[in-house]
């Protein structure tokens, strides 16, 4: 199934850019939510329709307005590794919650949340403060989104992200899964396949590089 309208929060991020390219190649329409108007040309060049909106200051109504008519939303935003605990909360947690609120208001049921290995698990006290804040924010976002029966949510927890070329081969399963790496391009390809098939509704998935083709790995989820 193609010709879908997919809204990507954090549209200038690296996974989002890969996803835009995959969706565009498949005949779908990517709508990129970006905070910085300087990124308009970059996402447009990839085939996306840019929408400038700041998830840290926008209202539910603001976001719902740009979600109207969408077939799915993807939360790919992040405060970034150099941000402090406060922004990890306002972006990685609150941004994901805002997008879910807006999706429900706009009548968009399909929601994919990009999370991380480590989310949903106890956080060791000796962890780096920035990483601890990030994992706590992601866990809180997961808890909020997964409690929504009205959303056809999927939570995707990739392993350590790399910028290598896509491999097309992954390990994709409900927890647990041994830690590992995965390319950002493969993460994007998995998301595109999940959106295309409608698979893994109300499932939390772990993702690393592996031996199964992406199509086979998604098909095996049922």
Summarize, please:
By secondary structure, the protein is of the alpha/beta class.
Regions with little confidence, pLDDT below 50 for 5+ residues: none
Rg, alpha carbons? 16 Å
Determine the N-to-C terminus distance.
Answer: 17 Å
- Class by alpha and beta content: alpha/beta
Element order: H for helix, E for strand: EHEHEHEHEHEEEEHEEH
Number of strands: 11
Report strand %: 15-25%
Q: What's the total helix number? A: 7
Quaternary status: single chain
| Biggest sheet features | 9 strands, mixed
Taking strands numbered 1, 2, ... along the chain, how are they ordered across the largest sheet? 3-2-1-4-5-6-10-8-11
Assign an overall shape: globular
Would you write up a description of this structure?
- This protein is an alpha/beta fold.
- The protein has helices at residues 14-25, 40-45, 60-67, 85-106, 129-146, 184-197, 214-219; strands at 5-9, 29-34, 49-52, 72-75, 110-114, 152-158, 160-162, 169-173, 181-183, 203-209, 212-213.
- It has a nine-stranded mixed sheet with strand order 3-2-1-4-5-6-10-8-11, with helices on both faces.
- The longest helix has 22 residues, at 85-106.
- The model has no long low-confidence stretch (mean pLDDT 96).
List the helices and strands and how they pair.
Elements: E1 5-9, H1 14-25, E2 29-34, H2 40-45, E3 49-52, H3 60-67, E4 72-75, H4 85-106, E5 110-114, H5 129-146, E6 152-158, E7 160-162, E8 169-173, E9 181-183, H6 184-197, E10 203-209, E11 212-213, H7 214-219
Parallel strand pairs: 1-2, 1-4, 2-3, 4-5, 5-6, 6-10, 7-9
Antiparallel strand pairs: 8-10, 8-11
